[in-house]
Amino acid sequence: MEQISGNRHNGASQLFFAPSPLLRGVISHYTVQLRCDGQQPQDRPLTIIPDASGCLVFTVSDGAVEQCFWGPNITTQDVERDFDRITLRLLVEFLPGGAFGLFGALPLAELQDGLYAVDAIDPALGRLFLPVMEQHHVSSPALLRAVDAMLARRLGMVKANSLIRQVLAGSSEPHGTPRPQALA
């Protein structure tokens, strides 16, 4: 996987990786957050800005895997600073409308500004991810390759709706930026 950048938030490491070429039409990037035992200001949450994209979040902590999906955000969202309590977190950050390519007919507009267990919105996807996360979470490179390969297979299984594809293609034209709520 190609690392595209990295940064630190009060000692916590975040690394950003490009998806494989097959997934670049639906996934913006992968973010890997690593445990940080350093001191962090716990009284200030991290604020996520609206992006109309959606994001899969896999958190490994004490050997347990939590799988959730942030629906497309049209408002800011505050999240807890927990880098000192996780083992690893992997975020699959979609392009606007890109989650449709993974979930198919899932009504993303109904999921906007919400956090959902993957099993609750797509049990089959939850069953696919869990063994991958459990097996590969000790090695970020292996985990990224396994998740990328699994998502590429999943993308091929979801039947593309030609109207949605046309809307997404038109949204990247230089005729202005669609509103986040319209993309959601």
Overview of this structure, please?
By secondary structure, this protein is of the alpha+beta class. The protein contains 6 helices and 9 strands. It has a 7-stranded antiparallel sheet with strand order 1-2-3-8-5-6-9. The model has no long low-confidence stretch (mean pLDDT 77).
Topology pattern, helix = H, strand = E: EEEEEEEEHEHHHHH
Record the strand order, biggest sheet: 1-2-3-8-5-6-9
Average the pLDDT over all residues and give the rounded result. 77
User: Main beta sheet: strand number and arrangement?
Assistant: 7 strands, antiparallel
Low-pLDDT residue spans: none
Taken from the alpha-carbon principal axes, the silhouette is: globular
Our count of helices gives: 6
How far apart the termini lie comes to: 29 Å
Count of strand segments: 9
> Which band does the percent of strand residues land in?
25-35%
Helix content: 25-40%
Radius of gyration: 16 Å
By helix and strand content, what is the structural category?
Answer: alpha+beta
Concise account of the structure shown:
With 184 residues, this protein is of the alpha+beta class.
Please supply descriptive tags for the structure shown above.
alpha+beta, globular, 184 residues, 7-stranded antiparallel beta sheet, two-stranded antiparallel sheet
Topology, please?
Elements: E1 3-9, E2 12-17, E3 27-34, E4 46-48, E5 55-61, E6 64-70, E7 77-79, E8 88-94, H1 99-103, E9 115-117, H2 118-121, H3 123-136, H4 140-157, H5 162-171, H6 180-183
Antiparallel strand pairs: 1-2, 2-3, 3-8, 4-7, 5-6, 5-8, 6-9
